[in-house]
Design brief:
The protein is α/β, with parallel strands linked by helices. It has two domains: 6-166 and 199-232, NAD(P)-binding Rossmann-like Domain (Rossmann fold); 174-198 and 234-286 and 304-333, no CATH class. Helices cover 41% and strands 17% of the residues. The strands form four sheets. A seven-stranded parallel beta sheet has the order 3-2-1-4-5-7-11, sandwiched between helices. Strands 8-10-12 form a three-stranded mixed beta sheet. Strand 4, helix 4 (85-103) and strand 5 (106-111) form a beta-alpha-beta unit. Helix 8 (239-248) crosses helix 12. The N and C termini lie far apart (47 Å). GO terms for molecular function: aldehyde dehydrogenase (NAD+) activity. One of its GO terms (cellular component) is cytoplasm. It comes from Kaistia hirudinis. Residues 7-221 form the NAD-dependent epimerase/dehydratase domain. This is Nucleoside-diphosphate-sugar epimerase.
């Protein structure tokens, strides 16, 4: 006899939300997605078995109805383009917490490194002080504090923190918008940070697999559980761009600096640019996430070899022409 398990994924059209939906569905879960336009969402995620429900994450009743019968709610909602975090992020989370409480569900939440200031660098553990230097960081700290409060009130919470995302459906990310240009073969690369400082990246399929392995051991988790995901860490941050060169078979591809001066000029007039500028310190200081607690709990962290992960990412972003695709396949085989 099998027991049907249901998860509500909020943000299933996004990068990590989509990978969570895919991984849960592959494990036999019934996955629901909440979206204002289910038809458009269904078309966008046609390769994943998701039961789409019409609704808005800003509407508490919509979230409550979508969560009926769910034993977990994955909260992957993010204001698009860094815009209006103060007005959207916390209210959406409150609706998720309320729905989880009513339905007896666990809240599962992807954490970020925005919570930390440079005084905690270079290697950051789960219990490091959270003294953010940015508005977005302060909002993220408030979100995790609210989740901890919800856990104290009886709602189980799982947080898994990771670095910058890359993956086949990464979309709006530093990799997909900064290092390469989606939808066209790689002709040049951009690296946003200081090339000699360390930077942490998370391959989304590995991150989703880690979430699900933790969920599968939910009976062993404390009511408020927080882990750090090591992912792919580069002691020289620019190594990720150099690795893209390798899988493309183009060691001569130029690696350019990010146009930070343009961002400074535009910041007073464009909200997205102001938010991007606030995050610059994360590209100027070494930051590595300490995953020892996670490894001790799971035994190992899921980890796709870098070449394979980059090839899948570039393929998904439409950045490989036929010549690059053949080169990438050879690299993946170790030829």
């Amino acid at each position: 006899m099998t027991t049907e398990r249901t998860a509500l994924v909020i943000g299933a059209t996004g990068g990590i939300g989509g990978e969570m939906a895919r991984t849960l569905a592959a494990r036999g879960w019934t996955v629901r997605g909440l979206h204002r336009d289910p038809a458009a969402a269904r078309q966008r995620r046609s390769d994943i078995a998701i039961d789409w429900v019409q609704g808005d994450a800003m509407n508490a009743e919509d979230v409550r109805k979508a969560a009926i019968g769910a034993e977990l709610i994955f909260h992957g909602a993010n204001p698009p383009g860094y815009r209006n975090w103060a007005g959207l992020a916390l209210p959406m989370l409150e609706n998720t917490i309320a729905a989880a409480k009513v339905n007896g569900a666990r809240v599962v939440f992807p954490g970020t490194v925005y919570n930390f200031g440079p005084e905690t660098f270079p290697r950051v553990g789960e219990d490091a002080p959270q003294n953010p230097r940015t508005r977005k960081g302060r909002i993220r700290v408030a979100m995790e504090a609210r989740l901890e409060q919800a856990a104290a009130g009886g709602t189980p919470v799982l947080i898994l923190r990771a670095g910058d995302f890359f993956g086949p459906s990464v979309g709006n990310s530093w990799f997909g918008q900064g290092i390469v240009k989606p939808g066209r073969p790689v002709r040049a690369l951009t690296y946003p940070g200081r090339r000699d400082v360390g930077h942490a990246w998370a391959y989304l399929p590995d991150l989703a697999e880690t979430f699900v392995r933790l969920i599968e051991r939910s009976d062993d988790l404390p009511r408020f559980a927080r882990f750090h995901f090591g992912g792919h860490y580069f002691a020289r941050g620019v190594e990720i761009a150099e690795a893209v060169r390798k899988v493309c078979g183009r060691p001569d591809l130029p690696i350019r600096g990010f146009p930070w001066p343009v961002v400074y000029v535009a910041a007073p007039f464009v909200e997205t640019m102001r938010e991007v500028l606030e995050m610059r310190y994360l590209w100027q200081e070494t930051l590595e996430l300490d995953n020892r607690r996670l490894v001790a709990f799971l035994g190992a962290e899921p980890h796709t070899p870098l070449d394979q992960a980059l090839i899948a990412t570039l393929e998904g972003l439409g950045c490989l022409d036929e010549a690059h695709r053949n080169t990438g396949a050879a690299v993946a085989r170790g030829a």
